[in-house]
Amino acid sequence: MGSTIAAKPTISIPKENEEQKKVPLNGQGAPDHNPNRFKIRTSSSSTTSTISNNSPNPLDYMDIGQGSRVRSFPHIQGNYALHVFIPVYIPPTTMKNLALFLKRIAKVVPELHVVDVDIPLSILCKDNQKFEQVALGREVHISLGRTVPIRVHQIDSILAMLRQKFSPSKQYWIDFTKWEVFVNDERIRSFLAMEVVAGGLAEITRQIQSVNEIYRFHNLPEFYKDPRPHISLAWASGNVGDQLKKRVTEDLSAGTMSQNRCIFTCEFKGIKCRIGNKQYKICNV
């Protein structure tokens, strides 16, 4: 069911898709690196919450769903951000090894943050249970299209076409077989991700093409010509791709994680769509 990883890992640094630019910014337009406090902006509220490391359980009450996202387009009244994706949950049996791997990487690249939730990995490393819960125990996603702004009158049409296009959908398996480092178009954010290069790639590619058709019909920008489906787990400010790539390659070469099988496999269970702060089910399997 899984695919094999090459004996000698090679990690390139492609550009990260636009919808992966999930960067928390402070008032001056830069990440808040104060070690005693950090800010979280959840999708359900525009309020920025300050969490102190001195509080008893600073992570217990946070929203660990979709975190803050700074788009590549300016906010315009009446526009809503559209994102179509496959939800993915990492199997509990895989979390322990992944947590150990991420902790080793975070020691060398301490500025790594959890994607979406935007909490520094260095803070989570102090609590194994919280680390697995926040960094690996929540929903992540494979994007099927760019994150783009749409107008309110387009919402019903896009939802109807997505549901018609993907109903019914068939079950298939997705193999995450390769650690990859992505850098966004502006070269100011680096991402650590797991890429789909074999099992499930053909099916996901066809789904991306279907989303492209709907985007095209609504005059929205289509996905990249050569999409590379993946889930991003961590990000770092700046172009630290070379440093991150080097550390990942060294860790894999040292045999700390198996290179002879896929990292993990999950079942395709459906597609979701987020429009603004609302999430919609497109299809279930």
Q: Explain this structure to me?
A:
The structure is a single chain. The protein is globular, with a radius of gyration of 18 Å. Strand 9 (178-184) and strand 10 (189-195) form a beta hairpin. The protein has six helices and 14 strands. Helix 1 packs across helix 3 (128-136), helix 1 crosses helix 6 and helix 4 packs antiparallel against helix 5. Residues 1-12 and 16-70 have low confidence and may be disordered. It is an alpha+beta fold and 285 residues long. The protein has helices spanning 92-108, 121-124, 128-136, 155-165, 201-217, 241-253, and strands at residues 15-16, 37-41, 48-52, 79-88, 113-114, 140-143, 148-151, 173-176, 178-184, 189-195, 230-237, 264-267, 270-275, 278-284. The strands form four sheets. A five-stranded mixed β-sheet has the order 1-9-10-11-5.
Mean pLDDT, to the nearest integer, reads: 78
Could you state the order of secondary-structure elements as H and E? EEEEHEHHEEHEEEHEHEEE
Let me know the number of strands.
14
Largest sheet: 5 strands, mixed
Helix share, percent: 10-25%
Kindly estimate the percentage of residues that lie in beta strands according to DSSP: 25-35%
**How many helical stretches?**
6
Question: Which assembly state applies to the chains in this document?
Answer: single chain
Main-sheet strand order equals 1-9-10-11-5
Low-pLDDT windows of residues: 1-12, 16-70
Strand pairing plus helix content: what structural class? alpha+beta
- Distance from first to last alpha carbon: 19 Å
Rg (C-alpha, Å): 18 Å
CA-based shape? globular
